[in-house]
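// run 5 | inverse folding | seed 20
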């Protein structure tokens, strides 16, 4: 706003649909501060521009201001946005929080001011709005890709100035793009930078415009580039929210099953919450709904509790997966899963299980190590350890599919559901949990899932899972790999028989037969317990 210092705002105008009621236009210094101009009312909007003249012209001081309005929107009536995206597109408050419109992939809000300025106002003022990195972390030796957003806040068209940069105080480099930028317009440029001379940790990338603008405060931007050399093997945590009464949940299951087909770089946990309850619901699962953003309903999922391009909102990790067109959903969501999987891990997770078949006591030890980058990039480290069962048969059927056998079922948390703070001994940790399995759980089909993560008490954008792993409770559990086919939802029931062909309630010690009944027929397997 420095370029307009001393100018006077005389009018405000809002582009709107017909029918918005009790509209008040005003100026405020910040999103969370009250108006610094009088409120001017439009009783009901007409289609197009709705303009008010300020009773007292507002003098621009050079400090940041926001043009603002409050209004009543009848049901079914929305706001108008331009087709052209802009870094300062505006903010919308739904009564709970502000959302930056520029992050939603839509254009700018139709909200303008008419300004009277003196003849000495500068003709041009270019500003670097943002520098967005294509990757959150960069491996040294790879090429750094960045998108640079530049705006012209002047009053006349002007050629884009040359752009300069340095990395870690090195020699300045200059590059140019021959283009004319109209006043009020924004330009986005993609640029690649070499990383060979970067070091592990944060590296300073300083970018500035080679211009003679009167106001230099907005001509440059310093960006910290997080770099690493090596990382630990990683698995991504898929948290799936589903319930038996949910009509669309079979659709979500199909989407996740297709997404994970042929992959081994994930750990899948299904929480039966989000729409009513069922016989697989565990109360602890409710603690996850709000932080992940799944309170709005199921089927839903998150990948590493990370905000991704496929998330429902840039403010929370939750991903809607209830698509009837499975292939279309996979095409949309797959890049998000790939991004999560390829995020480097700066700590390891290893699991060791000891199971006493006679007492049904499980002793689980989770241990790992970290490199020097973990405390630099993620100061808060928590560990959650869970038990997940495959092939769980229910009395009730899944609405929409009729399935009675379910995979990846969350049974309990061995740690706190929100995690235990990791206790580091130098760069190593080791934690042991003891638990006695209920008789109705099948030890051979139980997996221990362990994952390190940030605090669930953080903002929803900062609760990322840092690494995950899983391990079967018993050595016989490895034969349960075939149960991955259950993820299609085609299994309707299971029956168990002894070698004499007599049906039994549960597998007994020795050799027994398992008959898996699916929508396409039945399969019989021989097991030794």
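// decoded
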């Amino acid at each position: 706003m420095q370029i307009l210092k001393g100018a006077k705002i005389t009018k405000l105008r809002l582009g709107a649909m017909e029918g918005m009621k009790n509209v008040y236009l005003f100026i405020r210094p910040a999103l969370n501060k009250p108006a610094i101009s009088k409120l001017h009312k439009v009783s009901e909007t007409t289609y197009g521009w709705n303009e008010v003249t300020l009773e007292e012209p507002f003098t621009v001081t050079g400090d940041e201001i926001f043009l603002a309005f409050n209004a009543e929107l009848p049901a079914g009536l929305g706001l108008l946005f331009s087709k052209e995206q802009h870094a300062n597109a505006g903010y919308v408050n739904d009564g709970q929080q502000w959302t930056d419109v520029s992050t939603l992939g839509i254009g700018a809000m139709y909200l303008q001011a008419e300004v009277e300025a003196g003849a000495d106002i500068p003709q041009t003022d270019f500003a670097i709005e943002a520098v967005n990195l294509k990757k959150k972390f960069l491996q040294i030796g790879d090429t750094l890709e960045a998108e640079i957003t530049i705006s012209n806040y002047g009053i006349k068209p002007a050629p884009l100035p040359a752009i300069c940069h340095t990395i870690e105080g090195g020699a300045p480099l200059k590059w140019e793009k021959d283009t004319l930028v109209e006043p009020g317009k924004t330009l986005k440029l993609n640029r690649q930078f070499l990383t060979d001379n970067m070091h592990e940790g944060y590296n300073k990338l300083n970018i500035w415009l080679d211009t003679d603008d009167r106001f230099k405060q907005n001509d440059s931007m310093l960006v910290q580039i997080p770099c690493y050399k090596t990382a630990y093997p990683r698995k991504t945590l898929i948290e799936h929210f589903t319930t038996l009464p949910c009509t669309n949940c079979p659709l979500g299951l199909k989407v996740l099953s297709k997404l994970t087909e042929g992959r081994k770089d994930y750990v899948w946990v299904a929480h039966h919450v989000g729409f009513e309850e069922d016989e697989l619901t565990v109360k602890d699962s409710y603690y996850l709904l709000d932080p992940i953003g799944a309170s709005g309903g199921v089927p839903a999922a998150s990948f590493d509790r990370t905000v991704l391009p496929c998330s429902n909102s840039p403010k929370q990790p939750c991903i809607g997966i209830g698509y009837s067109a499975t292939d279309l959903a996979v095409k949309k969501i797959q890049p998000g899963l790939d991004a999560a999987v390829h995020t480097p891990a700066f700590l390891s997770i290893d699991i060791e299980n000891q199971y006493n078949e006679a007492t049904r006591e499980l002793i689980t030890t989770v241990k790992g190590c970290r490199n020097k980058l973990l405390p630099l990039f993620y100061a808060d480290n928590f560990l959650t350890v869970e038990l997940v069962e495959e092939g769980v048969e229910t009395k009730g059927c899944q609405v929409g599919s009729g399935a009675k056998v379910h995979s990846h079922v969350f049974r309990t948390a061995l740690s706190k559901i929100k995690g235990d703070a990791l206790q580091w001994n130098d760069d190593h940790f080791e934690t042991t949990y003891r638990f006695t399995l209920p008789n109705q759980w099948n030890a051979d089909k139980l997996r221990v899932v362990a994952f390190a993560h940030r605090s669930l008490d953080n903002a929803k954008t900062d609760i990322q899972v840092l690494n995950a792993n899983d391990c079967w409770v018993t050595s016989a559990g490895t034969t349960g790999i075939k149960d991955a086919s259950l993820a299609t939802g085609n299994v309707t029931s299971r029956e168990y028989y002894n070698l004499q062909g007599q049906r039994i309630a549960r597998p007994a010690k020795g050799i027994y037969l398992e008959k898996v009944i699916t929508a396409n027929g039945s399969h019989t397997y021989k097991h030794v317990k």
